[in-house]
């Protein structure tokens, strides 16, 4: 089969990669469409030392199992279902887990991917493939209200106007708080303004320490320092940014101002699907381009440009 | 009067420093005894660019006001009592505040210190001067149960066997959780063992990611990285360490494991005094030495030695 493979020789499109075998409990999914994420770019840059097929945002058709012949999306953490974390309902933190396209498990930039059947969610008929691919990153945005009661925050800032920043902003805006997105790109900020969300250019922002909540979606090791300049004493910063680079900043302000910093990763697929089905989240304007799988390397190259939002790979029409 | 002064020429004992004037709402305190804190050493090293009289842990006798002639301890944050934070009961975060011996306010390594009367707490007769001086750092330890419900944490680790680590450990041990203090100094760890608190030498510790709560009292920029190696996914790290140095570590593990990091600074004087009066906290073994104020520079030099716990300055017998 075709697959976008990252190995010791670098990144390549392999047209004769061995098809995955479904392990016990797994189902093969014929991929329809996949999305390129910042994490894919980080993996290519060396993060997690991943080797294998890239890709973890996808929609496809189940080849077997209870969703056979139907469109599904899949949670990316493949947990052991037996350890202390799995028993406590925290399978996304299972220490024995593999992660689709990220850790010890081939991903979705391929004709086929093997996914635990327990990870699958049926896609409502009303959702296009283009929209359904957004479910994985949108679920990550919905992790924020899983961790925090957003009704307790009056003034919120999302740092970063990229793919994840946009989705987090749309999720947080639903809570009715006074939200501002701060970013570097006028065109990306304009998309948010069209949704009625206030925005500011990063270059115009002075440290003002008045936000009750700051969500760092910058993807940059400097995001935390910017967040510390905007959050009020006793406020909360949510970190969505995973970068391999070191944060080189003093954390003394975090102690002096008694800030709470909350790491936040993958989230609930069911809540994201429900919001997409209800039309509550506007993802279509985020698509900056669509490529055939055969042109995946070109797409991954273009995804590194600052002007780009979401690029998708069409694997099968 | 005598005062330990830090200015652009460095640190000196001034025997003819001008006595403080009590501003409206302030009371002069004749200092009996003061404690040397890690923050004093940081200030001497350049932290906060402080200029003035050092010292913020003290017991003294009020010269006027409702505690006139009685022994008092004083909270260190001098807040405006008018701003949004003060109105919300968060005067310790007042953006207009000065801080005794730390920020725009002369401190307690002197014959006299001016303190807002509202900051004063009467010292119970039963407490010695030596014990009462511990109230300020002990209050900082009691800030942890102000911020977190400790009954929710089963396995706790305190990183650091110094002055603050010891006090935080004694406070956390009261919650009944399974507590281990990890430090570098056998003699300091032995003090904790005598209180029935389990300890480990840092050199023997492997990352094990199983603690529900880790409290960083290392005073070192590497403390956070050690804490991230010990806390479980979805666990909590409390940062008590304020250092001017930069933390150079990737925060990706914080995001991946969805760790909550809570900055923690000054705490409730009343709860600390009550615990000292009840004999619940054992501070006497922490005193490594006592110096006359006239020998303060020698004491501040000795306080930098790794083997020392608390040094106190006797200002007036």
The residue ranges of chain A in which pLDDT falls below 50 over 5 or more consecutive positions are: none
How would you spell out the order of helices and strands of chain A? EEEHEEEEHEEEHHEHEHEEHEEHEHEHE
Counted by DSSP, the helix tally of chain A is 10
Largest sheet of chain A: 7 strands, mixed
Write up what this structure looks like:
The structure is a homodimer of 317-residue chains. With 317 residues, chain A is α/β, with parallel strands linked by helices. In chain A, helix 6 links the parallel strand 12 (178-183) and strand 13. The first copy, chain A, is 24% helix and 29% strand. The two termini of chain A are 16 Å apart. In chain A, helix 4 (135-147) packs across helix 9. Chain A has helices at 38-44, 84-87, 129-132, 135-147, 163-173, 186-194, 223-230, 252-256, 269-277, 296-302, and strands at residues 3-7, 10-14, 26-35, 52-53, 57-62, 71-74, 77-78, 98-99, 112-116, 120-122, 155-159, 178-183, 198-201, 211-216, 231-239, 247-249, 260-263, 287-292, 310-314. In chain A, strands 3, 5, 6, 9, 10, 18 and 19 form a seven-stranded mixed beta sheet that branches. Chain A is built from ten helices and 19 strands. Strand 16 of chain A pairs antiparallel with strand 16 (247-249) of chain B, so a sheet runs across the interface.
């Amino acid at each position: 089969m075709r697959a976008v493979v990252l190995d010791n020789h670098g990144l390549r499109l392999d047209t004769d990669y061995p098809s995955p075998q479904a392990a016990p409990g797994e189902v093969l999914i014929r991929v329809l469409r996949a999305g390129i994420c910042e994490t894919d770019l980080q993996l290519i840059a060396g993060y997690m030392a991943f080797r294998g097929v890239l890709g973890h945002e996808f929609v496809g058709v189940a080849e077997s199992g209870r969703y056979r012949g139907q469109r599904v999306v899949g949670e990316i953490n493949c947990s052991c279902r037996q350890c202390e974390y799995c028993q406590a309902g925290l399978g996304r933190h299972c220490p024995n887990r593999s992660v689709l396209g990220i850790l010890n498990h081939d991903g979705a930039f391929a004709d086929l991917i093997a996914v635990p059947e327990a990870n699958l969610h049926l896609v409502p008929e009303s959702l296009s493939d283009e929209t359904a691919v957004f479910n994985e990153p949108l679920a990550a945005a919905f992790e924020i209200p899983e961790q925090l009661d957003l009704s307790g925050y009056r003034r919120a800032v999302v740092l970063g106007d990229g793919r994840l920043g946009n989705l987090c902003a749309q999720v947080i805006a639903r809570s009715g708080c006074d939200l501002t997105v701060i970013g570097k790109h006028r065109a990306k900020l304009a998309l948010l303004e069209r949704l009625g969300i206030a925005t500011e250019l990063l270059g115009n922002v002075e440290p003002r320490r008045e936000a009750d909540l700051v969500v760092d979606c910058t993807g940059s090791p400097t995001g935390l320092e910017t967040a510390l300049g905007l959050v009020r004493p006793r406020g909360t910063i949510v970190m969505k940014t995973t970068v391999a680079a070191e944060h080189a900043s003093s954390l003394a302000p975090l102690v002096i101002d008694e800030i709470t910093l909350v790491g936040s990763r993958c989230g609930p697929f069911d809540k994201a699907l429900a919001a997409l089905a209800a039309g509550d989240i506007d993802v279509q304007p985020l698509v900056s381009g669509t490529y055939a799988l055969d042109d995946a390397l070109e797409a991954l190259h273009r995804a590194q440009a600052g002007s780009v939002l979401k690029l998708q790979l069409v694997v099968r029409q």
